[in-house]
Amino acid sequence: MGSQGGFGQSKEFLDLIKSIGEARSKAEEDRIVLREIEVLKARLSDPNTPKFKLKEYIIRLLYVEMLGHDASFGYIHAVKMTHDDNLLLKRTGYLAVTLFLNEDHDLIILIVNTIQKDLKSDNFLVVCAALNAVCRLINEETIPAVLPQVVELLGHQKEAVRKKAVMALHRFYQRAPGSVSHLISNFRKRLCDNDPGVMGATLCPLFDLITIDADKYKDLVVSFVNILKQVAERRLPKSYDYHQMPAPFIQARICMNGLEENLTALQNAYMDIPFFKEAGKIKLLKILALLGSGDKKASEQMYTILGDIMRKCDSTSNIGNAILYECVRCVSSLHPNPKLLEAAADAISKFLKISPEIAEQHQLAVIDCLEDPDDTLKRKTFELLYKMTKSSNVEVIVDRMIEYMISISDSHYKTEIASRCVELAEQFAPSNQWFIQTMNKVFEHAGDLVNAKVAHNLMRLIAEGFGEDDNTADSQLRSSATLKEKFAVQHAGLGHEKSSERVESYLRIMGEPKLPSAFLQVICWVLGEYGTADGKYSASYITGKLCDVAEAHPEDDTVKAYAVTALMKIYSFEIAAGRTVDILSECQSLIEEMLASHSTDLQQRAYELQAILNLDAQVVEKIMPVDSTCDDIEIDKSLSFLDGYVRQSLENGAQPYIPESERSGMSNISDFKSHEDHESSTHALRFEAYELPKPSLPPNVPPVLASSTELVPVPELSYVSDILQSATSAPHASDAGSSALKLRLDGVQKKWGRPTYSSSTPSTSSTDNIVKIQSETTQRDSVGNSDPKTRDVSYNSKKQQAVEISPEKQKLAASLFGGASKSEGRHQKTPKPQNHTSDKSRAAKAVDIAPVKTSQPPPDLLDLGEPSITTGGPTIDPFKQLEGLLELTQDATPVSGGGVGTADASDFSSLFANMSVSVPSYGVDNPVSDVINGNGLGGSTVESSVQQMSKGPNLKEALEKDALVRQMGVTPLSQNPNLFKDLLG
Amino acid sequence: MIRGVIIMNDQGKPRLVKFYEFQPVEKQQELVRSIYRSRRAENVSNFVKVDSLFGPDVRLVYKTFATLYFVFIFDNSENELAMLDLMQVFVETLDKCFSNVCELDVVFNFKKVHTILDEIILGGQVLETSSSEVVKAVEEISKMESNGNSIISSIPGWQGR
């Protein structure tokens, strides 16, 4: 065996292949091939060419055609060669014609005769060659010409011939079903053939026949079951075992034939036979699926067997997985059965467990994308992250998003990212603290791009505090929020470190025009509301700062309005506290400037401020209660306090109030007005989502002014148009009013917009609680999903060498994806959550499976369990092997797989010693090696190294080959010309 | 049924192309090229749907062995994983027939490779799954073939009927 010396080919052929291998371009290759074609043309048509040379020319012709060039000129020579008496030439000829010609080719007619003759040959190899050709070249018309011979061959002495004859008949059946319909009995006879190969081959045509009409073949069930028993009891020759499974392919075929006719019979057989657990029931399952879909009765019959199969399937080998997969597919097509579906789900999760690394690779790919220089990729990644955000990973994702947001300059996309940040933060914020911090960051960097309502949400959150009863906690939060605002200011380069540097920071604030307006608004509001609350900062300091802010933004009326309101609050707090207010000169000038402002809003605020400054402490305390942003206040919606005024006006001859609906002439305008009001409010506020059943109004400047008649004279009502409208117009406006008035600092309304808020809970604090609970439940969910116990601890400890990915990335991946990343499990050996759900039932299942596995000797887990290696494995330290392998092979990943497979018995017992943890890991481990390395190549890698150690000459041979290959230059790029050295023993 | 088997190297050069339903040469080339182009990263599944190339429900399984891509194309009557295992059988057999098989073995002996494949798959159906059986058959054939310029004669003991 083995390749003949120098590959047994002539120098010419070697040169041809070498030159093609060295060709640098397709054009060059084409030139070479065309030259070759010319040579071949001449030689083939030369009558003096010796026959054995002809053979090689035909081979070369095949090669040429494989490279995509027309070789039709040589077809006739191939046909001629089939007539040859020499076995080698004849077989070459047959090979060539089967590759060159199709069944409708003109030359076929020349071959049919030869085939007929050869089918009768005494030499079985000739017959085989002819049968090969029959399979390929005989079409419907020529079937009758060869059919008798083929049928005769079914009784041939040599099993290889019988086998191929059966296949040929199958082929005929495929081509022309009618042509072999009378031959079914022959198939039946062949099914009882002594040779398992023939028997197995017979299953192919029978399968086809049975699929079409099952009834006719009911009588075969007994034979099928018998065969199945034989197979399962391992009465077949060992060579049919595959992966320690008794002849899975045959089993599969039998099953598919047997089961569809008589489920119960097979079921019994199945139950009887203990070995029948990993059979390739692939086709069976396909058939079952076909039979069962839509047929409740048939489905019910299958439940038991399917459940059994799934239970007994072990997923350490490809074939086992194939079965499992087909099971799942079958179950999905059957009439639904909850139990079975559950089992199927389990099976699927088994698949997932098999290869957490695969998922992991994707995770790392995502991380890589995040750091990719390509912008599109990043955006897509962020879209992905946005979609997969949950409470467990929101912090990381939003952090990343903000980071990215800072780095980009495209304002459109910046807006999008910012709004997404906000949305995610609102939805999943793990704590209010974090939320405020995040919002600060967003405002700092994209304040102008964020919807104004976000700012109000933030303010409201701060105002509402944590929603807990603990007021001290509240105040702590507030002061911390204040500090944080300042801190943020600091961050923005405004340098407000310590009180000693106040003046400088003022200047710096003034010199910093970049701060987004929305952020400034928040800062102003917080300073106003809580600036002096904790007593750390004096009123004058805060007011001074506020003035600076206002002055620094002469263009921005909104900011100025916020600043003035904040000033007003601080002053009134001061007054209420009984302290004398010394208004800074700059404040004074600011107020004066605003009194003359073009903006009526600013003007009004300034006047209000002035008015308050002149009031005494009690009044002020009443108007401006300290820290009462969230307090509910009763509002007299019917405006009963105006009754006296109205009556007086009526007495004075004024027109009585006509409801809007009755005012025909004006209805349009008022409709429009109310509509507009409604419109704008829904647009900005979505009041409906926050409908408050009972009117509540926090005491804030304008509403208080409006509701206290003594302070605000009646005509003032006209400018507090909101209030008037809320009182007079539709009910929605009242709702709008209640929330609009709450923090009405500049007429812009706000809401705190977690989607969870949309429930119509009356008091804001209770809604906050609800949010809390919800987020808690989601968190609990995620915890429940990730049962840390099922996570294996020892998992992959062998793979340490394969870590090339930086730990930070893995950490990131872990935090992003809930931690299926291997680094944790591997190094820290701590239980950790995994992103594929693994509930306890599955864990239990894994334990169930484990004992089955113990019965297998460890080396059996290798895909290619050659006995010599099986015995060799344990004697050598597996880890040493691994080390050696690492040096030998450049590809680290396949190597890693086989480690545990060769682990000796002690390793195994240790694995099972700490059952609860390591058993699932074991279940995970081996499939990983199997699946990841495709076909257990990891295992075979180990083998090869063993072999290399033990077999000297082999290596030498390989080296020689290597040298030859390099000389040939056929595979210039390959580092390892000895292809399968590392794959097969 | 199995529609075809392709072996090509990592540069897209076909090393063995066998379709079980006739495909014209140009079509074969095109298919090989497009399959080569659809190679994918190592970390993704090697089951690919190739409806666009071969018609509905046709899939292919590929696997890389050093410099060679093995590709099995088949329709829905076969299972992907089973095909993967069949591929393993094929490669095992190759390795047994050419000790330490390498790309060159496949190039220079593709007649023998064809013989091996014919022993495993016939007419698009799996004929034999035991690699040792295949090896035995192939050995027998090559012994007979290499037996000089033997003129076909009846072999005592092998005659049937």
UniProtKB/TrEMBL annotation, chain A:
Residues 656-680, 775-845 are annotated as: Disordered. Keywords: Golgi apparatus, Membrane, Protein transport, Transport. Pfam families: Adaptin_N (PF01602). It comes from the Eukaryota. SUPFAM superfamilies: ARM repeat. InterPro entries: Adaptor_Complx_Large_Subunit, AP4_complex_esu, ARM-like, ARM-type_fold, Clathrin/coatomer_adapt-like_N. Residues 47-615 form the Clathrin/coatomer adaptor adaptin-like N-terminal domain. The keyword tRNA processing does not apply. It is found in: Endomembrane system. Residues 775-800 have a biased composition (Polar residues). Subunit of novel type of clathrin- or non-clathrin-associated protein coat involved in targeting proteins from the trans-Golgi network (TGN) to the endosomal-lysosomal system. Belongs to the adaptor complexes large subunit family. Adaptor protein complex 4 (AP-4) is a heterotetramer composed of two large adaptins, a medium adaptin and a small adaptin. This is AP-4 complex subunit epsilon. It comes from Rehmannia glutinosa (Chinese foxglove).
Automatic annotation (TrEMBL), chain B:
This is AP complex subunit sigma. Keywords: Membrane, Protein transport, Transport. It is found in: Endomembrane system. Residues 1-144 form the AP complex mu/sigma subunit domain. Pfam families: Clat_adaptor_s. Belongs to the adaptor complexes small subunit family.
